[in-house]
Amino acid sequence: MIKLGIIGAGRIGKVHAESINKYVVDAEVKSIADPFMNEEISKWAENMGIKNTYKDYKEILNDTEIDAVLVCSSTDTHSQISIEAARAGKHIFCEKPIDHDVEKIKEVLREVEKAGVKYQVGFNRRFDHNFRAIKETVQSGKIGAPHIIKVTSRDPEAPPIDYVRVSGGMFLDMTIHDFDMIRFLSGSEVEEVYAMGNVLVDPAIGEAGDIDTAIVTLKLANGALGVIDNSRQAAYGYDQRAEVFGSKGSVAVTNDTGSRAVISTQEGVAAEKPLHFFLERYMQAYAEEIKEFIAAVVNDTEVPVNALDGLKPVLIGLAAKKSIQEGRPVKISEIEM
Amino acid sequence: MIKLGIIGAGRIGKVHAESINKYVVDAEVKSIADPFMNEEISKWAENMGIKNTYKDYKEILNDTEIDAVLVCSSTDTHSQISIEAARAGKHIFCEKPIDHDVEKIKEVLREVEKAGVKYQVGFNRRFDHNFRAIKETVQSGKIGAPHIIKVTSRDPEAPPIDYVRVSGGMFLDMTIHDFDMIRFLSGSEVEEVYAMGNVLVDPAIGEAGDIDTAIVTLKLANGALGVIDNSRQAAYGYDQRAEVFGSKGSVAVTNDTGSRAVISTQEGVAAEKPLHFFLERYMQAYAEEIKEFIAAVVNDTEVPVNALDGLKPVLIGLAAKKSIQEGRPVKISEIEM
Amino acid sequence: MIKLGIIGAGRIGKVHAESINKYVVDAEVKSIADPFMNEEISKWAENMGIKNTYKDYKEILNDTEIDAVLVCSSTDTHSQISIEAARAGKHIFCEKPIDHDVEKIKEVLREVEKAGVKYQVGFNRRFDHNFRAIKETVQSGKIGAPHIIKVTSRDPEAPPIDYVRVSGGMFLDMTIHDFDMIRFLSGSEVEEVYAMGNVLVDPAIGEAGDIDTAIVTLKLANGALGVIDNSRQAAYGYDQRAEVFGSKGSVAVTNDTGSRAVISTQEGVAAEKPLHFFLERYMQAYAEEIKEFIAAVVNDTEVPVNALDGLKPVLIGLAAKKSIQEGRPVKISEIEM
Amino acid sequence: MIKLGIIGAGRIGKVHAESINKYVVDAEVKSIADPFMNEEISKWAENMGIKNTYKDYKEILNDTEIDAVLVCSSTDTHSQISIEAARAGKHIFCEKPIDHDVEKIKEVLREVEKAGVKYQVGFNRRFDHNFRAIKETVQSGKIGAPHIIKVTSRDPEAPPIDYVRVSGGMFLDMTIHDFDMIRFLSGSEVEEVYAMGNVLVDPAIGEAGDIDTAIVTLKLANGALGVIDNSRQAAYGYDQRAEVFGSKGSVAVTNDTGSRAVISTQEGVAAEKPLHFFLERYMQAYAEEIKEFIAAVVNDTEVPVNALDGLKPVLIGLAAKKSIQEGRPVKISEIEM
Asked: What would be one Pfam family of this protein (chains A, B, C, D) (predicted)?
């Protein structure tokens, strides 16, 4: 029985605690820490069978009974806590992104390697049944060599402006998942990026120095081309589709819905909207990623999404940002240096 | 170049004239007759390049230049005109049903055989691309031996009550197409029928002695079971679907639409309603059935839907009617005697 | 915290234990009994956190700490155990069917009423997201008054012949769910049934005195017509669809699949088969029905599927059986007497 | 009755002659000219009821009875013949592109204006029922202001290498339709283009100096972003889809198929591939564009796709070409000068 500590009791920290409770048989959450720990969270923790609640995450790192930690704190603390946890000998599951600063991510990589602990990054979409079906089809060879990889990723609503300001920009906050998806589905590395963006959803986003609508084109090492279209606000809900087109055919997935009901009336033929947002759409994927992390710890095998997989999308995101700023395609090698 | 005469200048007579004009290269309509011939029809005929317009269809039968006639007059005249046309040595395309009276249909069969002319019945749905795709799949063996044949057939709106009164009842007027479809798709004969019906759309239909909603179950000679569901009024339009389920799988078709557009908004995900009614849905099928009739005449080959195919669905329709009246399953052999 | 005992540790008993473990927060399984209790089951029970394992279910009935029992034993013991459990003052969740004998079901009803305990029957499909979506659409009035209710229900493979012999026949074993679905979706009672059946899947089923393919037509109290098509074996998997057609439109559901992937190649455009069988398709529905049972116990409210809902489909099933035997439509009132 | 002359008796010239014959009531093709006129073409022309066949198109221009000409000759002759036809006072329907040379197109524009004749360019896809449905939805305001316009355009097979060499490159030969579609669907002008391309289908295409796979990103005057993905070879056939995403929702179309049949077997659930190529997919659109051209001539109204609509996509194509060559985004204004 693996004992876990969760660092950060915000939305995603709770999601992980709950899905471990429901779906993961060989692990249990022993402790949870949050600087804003309060009675409400403590009560929730008690209901979940979590023994200890702390304000200071170091209590978790100091607990020798705890095998692994889930870093679910605010983004700007990910790299620092990761380093401390590695030094404490804990296996680490860290929410994305590890950091916005490439140097800090590299430091995490070095510390993790030195400590010899497992390090998994929270690219949950890789565990979604739909994207897995694409990946498996590509790997089966049914559609031949990939030529074009397309990702559509649109949120149902823009985050609060206060969040936008500290988010690192849309590319590092939202598109980073799509950069990972391009790598995952293509099985290849991104070499060059060109991004076109605009502020079409909300002028306040522009005033905060960000964009809300974008098309990103990517050149991959295997010659394939990738393209992502993003919007911070889709009126019909969370739009998460992808397609890989190859020499022998294509594989594409559409959105999940709450039911398969189709209603035909004088007004037309109506189906349901996509599941509203990431909690609805990716609930099973969140459980699956933790399951596989625990399995890697238990069996001492490779984690499915490692620290390098955490670094690469940040590099792509920084290149996309530079591309927008300078109005030209940017090579990943320009960022890496 | 085959020369044709059309008897009956109502809606379906005009549909045939127009589709011959557009799609049939080796035939032309020389004459058209209608007891209610008037200036409007004459003008239309002139535009269509039809030389002669008559009140009396006998003028067409007496024209030795005319090779074949299309019987598009009112249902109660089909068998009489068919007999006269056969005696005049014309090949005959006759709209369904040949007659509501089995004896009269049998007389037509005898006269047609005696005269040695071609006789095709207007079961246009056999020529629809969707139902053809089912038929071809069944024949290919891909779904194995047919076990269940399902037909959904619902009109967008009920006919006028005056028409209902003389229509011979829903089974002979509307379901007759579905009885033909069951025979066509199964490749087998119907042996027994049980019908359950009700008046749910319009009480006036009940007062006129008819029903507007029905489920008909059919036992086929090859052991398969058939089922038809009918309504005189579907709010969303013309609903024409079918499925054959067999030992190795199933094949099903959905409705055609004007476009493949899907609109996603806050209200939901909306597609188009089915094409409104038979003229929209079966326009190509009407052209196709005439093309194949002409081809059978030109090449002296078998017509694709012969006089016996015209008789069988009437027998099934009469059995369904009797089943409703007597509240029990009825064998086709009870009707045939 | 409600304490539960499970009687019967076969497939469905285990499914319930596991889903209570995962999804039901305010109940726990204290004990499980099975006449064939063995080490394997005991080990599984231990893993599930179940304290007691018994051979004799009476140990559970005698345990005053236990609030409610789940009757998951073989069908022929359902009514007897239900009666004993009611007399022991336990709330009861009973798998379908309660019994094949109407008199015994009525005795259960009397004993349950006398004891004042909750009694829920395991018609799990009512809790499926797709069928719920139909029900909610019908209740919303969007499609008007129901005219036609259609249920397609086909299993991926026939049960073993030994099971077929004791199953009570396809109508009481398999179609009974569909009879319940017709009642659930229409909100009305079945008054008359006509069934047409055949042996098309496996001659051994016929030799065992049963059928494997059927069309059942039903007349409902509100005037609507119902139709069910059944097969014991669909090559492509578990086919569970339904449609309600009404005065203002229709609502229909298709099958769930493992993913929404569509693969386009030279061979065609391919999607996934339906989820294979009831465990895959209805896993969430099994959890949901138990959740609602527990909620009814905790809050002392009506159970969502009561004992009368357990009786009615058996009556319809017996009528369908009689219809096949006598080749005529059978009124439910003929069975009830 | 409008009298037409067709210049060029290749595939597209014949398509137009045949669809005028079938679908256009108020026009007839009087003459057809082709430098390679031969017996086979003459026979075909006779069958189509075309009176005159010439080698020299000037015979058509000199025929004062002819009101309008269809320029269906090889691309390099479009602008020259257009100019001569304008000077001869003929209304002109010209296949795309008018020319690859911007100056020559501008000369055509001047001559057409001077002569006061109608000039329509053959962007047939604007007349396709699916793309029209998108356009109408955008215009209806249902999806709000357009933010992202996506076009997927993939051919079933690459053209012969000899053709590739003289085609002007994929952007001017194939993508030009997609550039027009972006303008049509967005109702806005393209201001800047970035193109990423590769040779993934056939190395011979690369040796001929062209690419076969591309992603093109476009910045529009109204702030919206456009994106096109192209391949010269899709194993599953002609892939022609589009989507407009806006502030209130999105509208998207999928491909047409020969039938709506879905076959479910042990292997999976299979639907038909898209209609094979442009002749199958756009047959009705070809008829529609000519109908509207004739209507504009008859009623002296604006043509639906004018000479300027012929110029703009060429400018975008040249910008895309330059973008590939120079590895940077290119403004349309750089090309126009």
From this structure: GFO_IDH_MocA
Asked whether the beta carbons of residue A22 and residue C23 sit closer than 8 angstroms, the reply is yes
pLDDT at A141: 97
Stretch (H or E) spanning B268:
strand B268-271
Q: What contacts B274, CB < 8 A, 6 or more positions away?
A: B236, B237, B238, B239, B240, B255, B256, B257, B281
Instruction: Name every residue whose Cβ is closer than 8 Å to that of residue D212 and which is 6 or more positions away in sequence.
Output: D158, D170, D198, D199, D200, D201, D202, D205, D206, D231, D232, D233
Say if C249 is an interface residue toward chain A (CB within 8 Å).
Answer: yes
Q: Which residues pair with D220 in a beta bridge?
A: D190
- Give residue-wise pLDDT tens across range A66-92: 999 999 999 999 999 999 999 999 999
Q: Does A142 touch chain C (CB under 8 A)?
A: yes
Q: How far apart are CA C118 and CA C71, in angstroms?
A: 13
Quote ipTM for the complex.
0.95
Whether D254 and B264 lie within 8 Å, measured CB to CB: no
Per-residue model confidence as pLDDT tens digits over A117-160: 999 999 999 999 999 999 999 999 999 999 999 999 999 999 99
Pair of tokens at residue B327? 């509240």
Q: Where are the domains of chain B?
A: 2-117, 126-276+312-336
Which among A280, A193, A200, A266 is positioned nearest to A234, based on CA atoms? A200
D270, C272: Cβ pair inside 8 Å?
no
Flag whether pLDDT at A337 surpasses 70: no
Can you list the residues of chain B whose pLDDT is less than 50?
A: none
Cβ contacts (< 8 Å) between D275 and chain C: which residues? Answer: none
Please give the mean pLDDT across all residues of chain C.
96
CATH architecture of D126-277+312-336: 2-Layer Sandwich (3.30)
D233 contacts in chain A (CB < 8 Å): 247
Residues of D in contact with A236 (CB under 8 A): 249-250
Using CB atoms, list chains with 3+ pairs below 8 Å to chain B.
A, C, D
The residue of chain D nearest to residue C275, with distances taken between CA atoms, is D268
- The chains in contact with chain A, meaning 3 or more Cβ pairs closer than 8 Å, are B, C, D
Q: Nearest C-alpha of chain A: how many angstroms from D304?
A: 29
Three-state DSSP at A190 gives strand
**Does the beta carbon of C263 lie under 8 angstroms from any beta carbon of chain A?**
yes
Which residues in chain D (144-173) have CB-CB distances under 8 A to chain B?
A: none
Contact flag D196-A194 (C-beta cutoff 8 Å): yes
A266 touches chain C (CB under 8 A): yes
> Does the domain made of B126-276+312-336 have the CATH classification 1.20.120.1200?
no
Residue from the list D145, D213, D229 with its beta carbon closest to the beta carbon of A150 = D229
**Calpha distance D167→C129 (Å, rounded):** 54
B1 touches chain D (CB under 8 A): no
In DSSP terms, C164 is beta-bridged to none
What are the tens digits of pLDDT across the range D273-283? Answer: 999 999 899 99
User: If you classify domain B2-117 with CATH, what class do you get?
Assistant: alpha beta
Chain A closest-CA separation from residue C246 CA (Å): 10
The answer, yes or no, to whether residue C337 has pLDDT greater than 80, is no
Do B217 and C217 make contact, defined as CB atoms within 8 angstroms?
A: yes
CATH of domain A126-281+312-336: 3.30.360.10
pLDDT tens for D71-96 read 999 999 999 999 999 999 999 999 99
Integer Cα distance of A126 and A136 in angstroms: 11
- Whether C44 contacts chain A with CB within 8 A: no
The token pair that represents A265 in the structure block: 């009336």
Q: Which residue has the tokens 């995450």?
A: A57
Cβ-in-10-Å burial (0-12, 13-18, 19+) of A238 comes to: buried
Contacts of residue C321, defined as CB under 8 A and 6 or more positions apart, other chains included, come to C169, C171, C172, C195
CA angle C190, C194, C199 (to 5 degrees): 130
